[in-house]
Design a protein that fits this description.
The complex is a heterodimer of chains A (313) and B (290). In chain A, helix 1 packs antiparallel against helix 12, helix 7 crosses helix 10 and helix 8 runs antiparallel to helix 10. By secondary structure, chain A is mainly alpha-helical. The radius of gyration of chain A is 24 Å and the shape is elongated. Chain A starts with a helix and ends in a 7-residue tail after the last helix. Chain B has a single domain, classed as Orthogonal Bundle (MetI-like fold), CATH 1.10.3720. Chain B starts with 11 loop residues before the first helix and ends with a helix. The chains are: A mainly alpha (313), B mainly alpha (290). The interface between A and B is large, with 50 and 45 residues.
């Protein structure tokens, strides 16, 4: 019940943002310098065909009517037709979305795989050394090497090392599980840096906490305390972090796809921009934005479900 | 009597340089800039001349880093690309920082409806990744280097606006500012002595880290083929060429990758270090302790 109310409030809060996104994507075609139809069809297109296209895109109608139509379409899942492939934009986008989401999820997995042991080890070490003040600065400095790593650069370096030099994984493509390993790590590495800081901080927070003392006095083994209780506690801030960072991760996936020649939303958007397929771009950006909003919302709700202390406002 | 904020600790520069992270970043950045600027001036190779007979060669005495798929000198290209990537990225962020901080200051000072409207817009912009906003701008303006620079500028605007605004808001309720106000300090003096130095210290780390980010986003756009357009080449364009031939001549991709990584890493270290030291300065001035 508590969660349901939280969900409703969270959805209501997102409505104006969604409206803003719809308005901005609607504006794309009208903000193009010069005549958008000329831009789409090329400078030397036949005037007759330009007039036809203008009518087909509905650009000859009053702006308010166009907006109402676009908004209505967006709400009912009609995002117009790609000017290049003549396919419905929604169909184009939905066809590629699963690949991109798959990569994003794999990236999160890779980040967790790196950050959890790193954060835990660092916390345990700080604890053993008596929590010296400099430890935090040093850890921040070392992890900033990960954080400052642009995903498409590390992608290139990973391809060189693991695909060209040692041939452990394929250079490119999207066939089979091995093909997603390198893109996932390329994507997850910079997230892992921030995550490791969060894991370290929250492990340090609870490693001396009252519940740990209780467990210890009950004779529970240290290892079990760490893995079953301390880490579970650390999962809440990690989840919050994922919610904040998801947008960046998804944006990273759009680039990484291009390095590894994986068909997805990233390659789709870049193709559309290069072809100046404005109707397609509108729909693609709208969907990416909505995915980010929905995932943020889902993670917030999830965090609220795990942690009874989360303020439900 | 005029109460002024306590003077900042003597020799700020000395304190900054004393910080390990700041120093590491500064040394690395100087090295990268020196290699790029001096290297491109001194190295005789030409970045654009194609040598059809010498394509995709490994390192040799003639071409220290080999050649790309058009037979161009990779070393010359990576040095000259730096002369494009670094200034363009910095220019873009500087523009965005000026506009963003101004907007944030206005929102913080005026408050009321202006603040509400500006803050709402900034919130919406910040809830999406910079790259998505950059893609949107490039989609509107068309894929070339001017729109890419403008796009990167726009991605830097909201973060600067938010920090400038929140610093002003915090200061407005700070007790020493209140004290200055009741003792009749005039607005220009108030701004110069109390508000702007603090806003500046809060913005510097954001600005520096933003530069690293700007260089990345710009290179990402070029890498995707919707930023700097060939034959001009920044590190992003070089990377596109390099990834295509990574099996045969990995240096074509690794050279720009390493240079860019070093640049961005040094800028980030510098920014994070500055953030730590400057927040220490600010804390002392809030508490009025020296």
């Amino acid at each position: 019940m508590r969660i349901a109310r939280f969900l409703v409030r969270r959805v209501l809060a997102a409505v104006p943002v969604v409206l803003a996104v719809v308005t901005v994507t609607f504006a794309i075609i009208h903000l193009v310098p010069g005549d958008p139809v000329q831009v789409i069809m090329g400078a030397d297109a036949d005037p007759q065909r330009i007039a036809e296209a203008r009518e087909a895109l509905g650009l000859d109608r009053p702006l308010a009517v166009q907006f109402a139509d676009y908004l209505g379409g967006a709400l009912t899942g009609d995002l117009g037709t790609s000017f290049f492939t003549r396919q419905p934009v929604l169909e184009l986008v939905l066809e590629k979305t699963p690949q991109t989401l798959q990569l994003a999820v794999a990236g999160i997995g890779a980040a967790l795989l790196i950050s959890t042991p790193l954060g835990v080890l660092a916390a345990v070490r700080t604890q053993r050394r008596g929590r010296k003040a400099g430890d935090q600065t040093a850890f921040t400095m070392w992890t900033s090497i990960l954080v400052a790593t642009p995903d498409f650069l590390i992608g290139t370096i990973l391809v060189y090392l693991f695909a060209v030099r040692w041939r452990w994984f394929p250079v490119a493509g999207s066939e089979g599980v091995p093909s997603i390993v390198l893109p996932a790590f390329a994507l997850g590495l910079s997230l892992a840096g921030i995550q490791a800081r969060v894991v370290r901080a929250s492990v340090l927070d609870s490693i001396d906490g009252p519940f740990v003392r209780t467990l210890r006095s009950a004779g529970i083994r240290e290892r079990r305390i760490l893995f079953r209780h301390v880490l579970r506690n650390a999962s809440i801030p990690v989840l919050t972090l994922l919610s904040v960072e998801f947008g960046r991760l998804l944006a990273g996936a759009l680039i990484i796809e291009n390095i590894f020649a994986r068909p997805g939303l990233g390659t789709l958007i870049v193709d559309s921009i290069s072809r100046r397929d404005l109707p397609a771009i509108q729909g693609e950006i709208l969907i990416v934005a909505v995915i980010i909003l929905v995932v943020n919302m889902a993670m917030d709700v999830q965090a609220a479900a795990i942690d009874p202390r989360v303020e439900l406002h | 009597m005029t109460i002024t904020a306590p003077a900042p600790p003597r020799d700020r520069i000395g304190q900054l340089l004393h910080h390990r992270t700041v120093l590491a970043g500064l040394v690395m950045l100087t090295a990268v800039l020196a290699v790029t600027i001096i290297g491109s001036a001194v190295y005789p190779g030409d970045p654009v001349t194609t040598h059809p007979l010498n394509i995709l060669q490994g390192p040799s005495s003639e071409y220290p880093l080999g050649t790309d798929q058009l037979g161009r000198d990779v070393l010359a290209r990576v040095l000259h690309a730096g002369l494009l990537s670094i200034p363009l990225g910095m220019m873009a962020i500087t523009g965005g920082a000026i506009v963003g901080s101004t907007i944030g200051l206005i929102a913080g000072f005026l408050g009321g409806v202006t603040d509400t409207i500006i803050s709402r817009i900034v919130d919406v912009l910040l809830s999406f990744p910079g790259l998505l906003i950059a893609l949107l701008v490039v989609a509107i303006l068309g894929p070339d280097s001017t729109s890419a620079v403008l796009a990167v500028s726009i991605t830097a605007t909201p973060s600067h606006a938010r920090v400038a605004r929140s610093t002003v808001l915090n200061l407005r309720s700070a007790s020493y500012v209140e004290a200055a106000r009741v003792s009749n300090t005039r607005t220009p003096a108030m701004l110069r002595r109390h508000i702007l130095p603090n806003v500046r210290d809060a913005l510097i780390p954001i600005f520096v880290i933003g530069m690293g980010n700007g260089i990345i986003v710009l290179a990402a756009l070029s890498f995707l083929g919707i930023g700097v357009q060939p034959p001009a080449a920044d590190w992003g364009v070089m990377l596109t060429d390099g990834v295509r031939s990574i099996r045969t001549t990995p240096l074509v991709a690794l050279a720009p990758a390493v240079m860019m990584y070093a640049t961005v890493l040094s800028i980030n270290l510098l920014g994070e270090g500055l953030g730590e030291v400057l927040s220490r300065f600010r804390r002392t001035s809030y508490l009025g302790a020296e």
